Structures are given as C-alpha cells and as structure tokens.
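Figure 2 data, in text form.
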Amino acid sequence: MTQMSDIFPEMTVEQEKQWFAEQQEAHRLDLEREKIEIAQRKAVDHYIQCRDCGAFVQKWRWVRKDHPQAISQGWRPLCGSCFDNYDNYP
C-alpha cells in the first residue's frame, strides 16, 4: 500500500516530495533571474541615493525613475541605517 501524505491528503508521499522539489527549483530559478535583473540595472535609470542622508544605496534598493509611485508619490530608496530608523509595522 502507498503511504499518503500528511500535508496533502490527496497526494502520496512520493508525489509530495516531487511537488516540493519542483517548488524549490522554481524558487531557485526566480532568485537567479532576480540576481541577473539586478546586475543589469543602470544607475542613470534609477534613484540611487538615500532620500534621508544622501548616501549611495545598495543596487537592490534602487528605485526606477519612471516607476509610477516614484513620479506621483516621490518614492526614493533608503539606506539600511535610515531604514532602521523607521517603524515598520504592517
């Protein structure tokens, strides 16, 4: 008899393992794609300085100049130090 999954009652344990492996691989590919996208960013197209202290921010924090909220609401990146000064409650 095939053992059924405790997490997904409609799957066998082998199907569950396969599903988790597929999810993990998809997540790895998403991270890889995101790293490539970040590496291809050009400073001229982004706001690259902290809105509070003016320090250069890490590339993954850059905000596109043509982003709708950057235009209408004045979104600008924050460096890690300035970000820590704000309360981040949902």
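Caption note: The longest strand covers residues 46-47.
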